[in-house]
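Assess this:
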Amino acid sequence: MKDNWFNIENVDTVDSPSVALYREHLLFNIKQMVSLVDGKADRLMPHLKTNKMPEVLKLLLASGITNFKASTIAEAEIAAEAGANSVLIAHQLVGPKVDRFLKLSGHFSATLFSTIIDDTESAILLNKKADENGLKINIYIDINNGMNRSGIKIGSALDSLLSVVRDCKNLQFKGLHVYDGHLRDPEFSVRNEKIESGFEDVTTYFEALQHIYPNIELICGGTPSFTSHLLQKDRITSPGTCVLWDWGYSEKLTEQNFKHAALLVTRIISKPIEGFVTLDLGHKSVAAENPIDKRMKFLNIDNYELLSQSEEHGVLKVSNWDELKIGDVFYGVPYHICPTINLHDEVSVIENGLKVDSWQITARKRKLRF
């Protein structure tokens, strides 16, 4: 890879702050995902929360990946529009989302939709609404195996939930969903050991269920646990971040060979005092949930420190202040790409060092048609 692979020859056509998407790296990452599961694309269910773009979905579909995971109705909608075979909304539906999901399911008859549940009342409500609409809804039970964000623990409460689901004639039990995103140890052997240890009860329970439901599935993890779950042939994996990649996971998940496919483009807008420059990149343009030194890493400047960010400004302390000019372009790798993408309306598509197109980040909106 060239040291300056990120340079955009016609960068004057790229506004800032904005996201540049490098098509060659995107295609590499998709190919790498498929390669890691030995070409068995049915073992992949990429999460759409990272990219949210119909054009990226088309490339995933062209690679043979046809099943997807989503967090929002809008993400599921763009997947169906693109021609996805199936979409799992991995978010328990509450409030108006139940009716929105049913309308979505009824409209896109060629796409198999499903959702997760971890609560008996949610199951009963979903069953009632499905019956009123003449629909059968596919559901996965969400298992909590240590992250404590959602899901139900394996035990008597899960047995009771399954019993309720059996009585819900408009719900079709499809399997278990387990997300273990809290396990991110940089050393793969340590991470893998923790992941497999956390899956012992899940595996035992799942194998017992298969005697009753022989066709159920086990949908597992995200990008951090992707390289663990892909080693177990009975698991469907759900990486998402690796489609675009970011600084945070490239530091932590060193065994994963993905390339940065999305960078932030920003420019110097002021040199207010010697040793300091101000960029047009505030916390409205990059994920700001991490400390100031863990938000982005610039590729074409050394010996700098990001001192502060406000809404539309970022202040850098630099060592080469005299060499820098108003309007100079910096390229930055976000620490966390998923929420960064969600802050922008579109990306500039870069191919062979040139901006060649713009793609809409359609599903950053919470609601499209449904």
